[in-house]
Design brief:
Number of strands: 0
Distance between the termini: 39 Å
Helix content: 55-70%
Order of helices and strands: HHHHHHHHHH
Largest sheet: none
Structural class: mainly alpha
Radius of gyration: 21 Å
Strand content: under 5%
Shape: elongated
């Protein structure tokens, strides 16, 4: 059987490996660490702390593995890392715990494993669903624009037709409600899909106008702005989201 697809937590003889063999295993793992971290980061939706924990656990699994049975070490470590990261995402979903930072799949990762991109997009969808369920329209708009796209408060205020002071308050109120607040209402599937689509368009293509309009409408306003934002400025902010 191909060990690259063997269950990562299988009990094996690797724990009794010779010191020189373990050293070689460490050197190889170090050469793969950055790649594995990127995989874990994508699957966990940009949660760097969880991604680091995943890589550390992958290293422990690699030490315990009977590496003489592994035909393709890179594939084995990739599979191990993906499964561990997916377990983290599923566990967080079960406990209703999500990272407060929302990240989209990076456009430069077009050559990445399609399964990883699917997992990352699913994690993004779950995170945005949580925000929809726990935040008011104004809190959602202010939080995403400030924390993800780095909009200045006066610009958020113009978008939501409020004051900069109130925009700051909306962001401050949002953070604890994301992690500890109850759901305000069931999330409408259409609203969820529209938000995910607009978010991906803004973060991956640099086209922020649809997201601005959607967030402004959710904040209770019919128009996104009284004056359009320069396209270059919008693209710069969108680039910062990824």
């Amino acid at each position: 059987m191909d060990a690259s697809t063997t269950e990562p937590d299988r009990t094996i003889r690797g724990a009794c490996a010779r010191p020189d063999d373990l050293e070689r295993a460490g050197v190889f793992f170090a050469s793969q660490r950055a790649r594995l971290f990127r995989i874990a980061l994508r699957v966990t939706g940009g949660d760097s702390s969880s991604a680091e924990d995943v890589v550390q656990e992958a290293w422990l699994r690699w030490q315990r593995t009977d590496r003489t049975e592994v035909r393709n070490p890179e594939a084995f470590l990739t599979t191990t890392t993906k499964r561990l990261a997916i377990n983290v995402v599923q566990s967080a979903s079960h406990r209703h715990e999500y990272p407060t930072d929302v990240h989209a799949p990076r456009p430069e990762d077009d050559g990445a494993d399609p399964a990883v991109r699917v997992d990352q997009t699913a994690a993004l969808s779950e995170a945005l669903g949580l925000l929809l369920s726990r935040l008011s329209g104004g809190e959602l708009a202010a939080y995403l624009l400030r924390k993800v796209f780095d909009y200045p408060y006066d610009e958020i205020a113009r978008l939501l037709r409020t004051s900069a002071v109130n925009a700051r308050q909306l962001v401050r109120r949002a953070a604890p409600r994301i992690t500890r607040g109850p759901a305000r209402a069931p999330v409408e599937s259409a609203a969820h899909r529209n938000l995910v689509a607009a978010f991906l368009t803004a973060s991956q293509e640099g086209e922020v106008r649809p997201l601005e309009q959607l967030l402004a409408l959710r904040g209770g306003h019919a128009a996104a702005r009284t004056a359009p934002v320069g396209a270059a400025g919008g693209r710069r902010r969108a680039a910062m989201a990824v």
